[in-house]
Amino acid sequence: MKKTLKILSKCISAAGLMLLCLLAVWVISSKASGGEPSLIGYQAKAVLSGSMEPTFMTGSIIVVKQPDSKEHLKTEDIITFKSGDKLITHRIVEVKKTKAGVLYQTKGDNNDAPDMDYVQPENITGKYAGFTIPYAGYAAEFAASKEGSALLLFIPGLLLLLSAGRTIFLALKEYETKNA
Fold it and tell me: Which entry of 29, 38, 49, 83 is annotated as an active-site residue?
């Protein structure tokens, strides 16, 4: 029983450390690139409002991918687009073809009315890839803050230092036991 608990404890510790390191890499790459980090064309976006509830709950992280063609999106597709200086993720409710090109009318699932402005294809930054992590957006938003960034750099260093100190202490204790 003790051995099982010890293995479980090590697994939980390893998972926590990997999550912490993953968040650190995410924050550092986001700061270095000046934008959102991307992996094989996929990006993670934090949901900051309730406009798409119950599809995406506030505080979730969603994964989006750059669509192959921004002109061939269809009704019911969920897209992330730039509106001024912020990113919005809403569902396409109408595709309007004009002489100038295609325009998309969007609406949040929890909103009563469609968005006022049509979305132009060049403003689309991604299409929902079908993967959501509930509540992880809160951690990601904290990690992106100054305090969170500092903690994500400080905590792994402190853990490495403590681990090295523990290893040295155990080695010294074993050495003393052998020489006693």
Answer: 49
Quote the pLDDT of residue 103.
92
| Cα–Cα dist 9/86, whole Å | 42
Q: Are 96 and 118 in contact (CB under 8 A)?
A: yes
Report the alpha-carbon distance of residue 33 to residue 16 in Å, rounded: 26
42 φ/ψ angles, rounded to the nearest 5 degrees: -100, 145
49 annotated active-site: yes
Neighbouring residues of 27: CB distance < 8 A, sequence distance ≥ 6? 143, 144, 148, 149, 152
Task: Give burial (CB, 10 Å; 0-12/13-18/19+) of 10.
Answer: exposed
Q: Which DSSP string do the residues of 99-111 spell out, in sequence order?
A: TTEEEEEEE-TT-
Alpha-carbon span 60 to 45, nearest angstrom: 8
Q: How confident is the model at residue 42 (pLDDT cuts 50, 70, 90)?
A: confident
- The length of the chain is 180
Token code pair at residue 5: 């608990």
pLDDT single digits (tens) 70-106: 778 899 999 999 988 888 999 999 999 888 889 999 9
| pTM, two decimal places | 0.65
